[in-house]
Amino acid sequence: MNGAFDIELLNTGDPDGLDDIGRFNLHNVREALAHGLRCWGALLFRRPRAVYVPIDRAFWGFLRDLLFLVPARILGIRVVIHLRAGRFDLIHDFGARGRLLARVGLGTARRAIVLGSTVRDVFGDYVPAGRIAVVPNGIDITGWPSPGRKAPAGDGSFHIVYLANLFRDKGAHIMLGALPAIIRRVPNVRVSFAGKWIDAEFRKECELMIAERGLERHVEFLGVVGGDDKRRLLESADLVAFVPVKPEGSPWVVLEAMASARPVIGTPQGTMKEVIVDGVTGYLIAPGDTAALADRVAALAGEPELRARLGEQGRSRLEAIYSETASHRKLAEVLLEAMGSGTK
User: How does pLDDT run across 103-137, given as a tens digit for each residue?
Assistant: First the structure.
C-alpha cells in the first residue's frame, strides 16, 4: 500500500483519572456510551479502512470495547485488536457470559495482536492461529543510561532493585523469603522495593516477615518511583529482580532493566521467558523458588564481569527487538497488511 493516509485517534481515556478503571458504575457507563457514539460517528462519516482497538482482558472493559468492534464489523471495516496482557481473563473467569462476549467480540477481528510467541494461544480457539500476529512491547530508550555506567551505591552495598506494585501476584514476598539465605552469603545486600502497596493484608504479612527475620537494615520501600528518579534508581542497581507468581504479559520493569543494562532475575510468566534469555541477559527461576533466587543472587554478587556482560547483552537485545522503534515498525507492518490486502 503506497501513499499517505490519515489516522484518527478516539481518546477513550478518563479525564478523572484511573481510579474507576474496569469498574461498573454510572460514570463509566456514561463515558463508554459517549465514546461509542463518537466511534459510530467516525465510522459513518470517515469510513476508515481499518479500526485498531487495544482491547481489555476483563468483562466490563471488553463490553465497552464491543461499542467499537461491532459497529466496525457491521459496516464492513477491518478490525485489528491488540491485547497487551499475557492472559485473556474474559474466557477463564466470567463463565458462559464471558465466553459469549469473547466469541462475539473476537469474531470481528481480521487480525489479533499479542505480545509474544509464548502467548499466541491466549485467545484459545476464539481466534484462528492464522489471524494472530506478534508485536512485542517496545520502550523508548532515549534518556536511559548507556551500557557500562553505574552510579555508586554510596554505602558499599550490593544493591538489588525490585520494581513492582506490592501485592501477592507480583512476588515481593518471594524476594523477602529468599533474603535470609542471600544475607548469609552476601552480608552487604540491600533491596530497594519501588512500587505502591495495593493490599493492606499483604503489607502486614511482608512487614511481619521483615521483623521476624531481622531484615530491617537490608530492605527499603521507596513508594512509587517514576521518570528520572526511576532511571537513577535502576542505574544504581547491581541487578534487578522481578519474580511474579501469577501470569504476566510483558512487564515494563524487565524492559526498563534491560534499557539500564542490568541483568534481570525473573520467572517464566507470559513473555518473560522469551524476553529474558536464561544465562544470556539474566536468569529465570521457577515461581516461588526462594532457594533458586538466593543461589542466582549470590552467584551474580561474586561475578561483576558476568553482571556487566549479561546487562550489555540485555541492552543489545532490547535495542534490536524491544525498543520503541522496533515495536512501532512491527505494529505498522501488521496494520498496513490489514488495511491493504484482501477484501473487507
Answer: 999 999 999 999 999 999 999 999 999 999 999 99
Domain count, the chain: 2
Q: Are 236 and 293 in contact (CB under 8 A)?
A: no
| Dihedral class, residue 165 (left if φ above 0, else alpha if ψ from -120 to 50, else beta) | beta
Nearest to 312 by CA among 120, 143, 320: 320
Is 207 found in the same domain as 74? no
Same domain for 302 and 331?
no
pTM of the prediction? Answer: 0.86
Same domain assignment for residues 175 and 251: yes
Give the residue numbers spanning the domain of 262: 158-322
Q: Is the pLDDT score of 341 beyond 70?
A: no
Other residues' Cβ atoms within 10 Å of the Cβ of residue 187:
10
15 part of a folded domain = no
Reduce the secondary structure of 121-145 to three states and give it as a string: CCCCCCCCHHHEEECCCCECCCCCC
In a domain, 50, yes or no: yes
Identify the CATH number of the domain in which residue 279 sits.
3.40.50.2000
Is residue 258 within 8 Å of residue 322, measured between CB atoms?
Answer: yes
pLDDT (tens digit per residue) in 65-106? 999 999 999 999 999 999 999 999 999 999 999 999 999 999
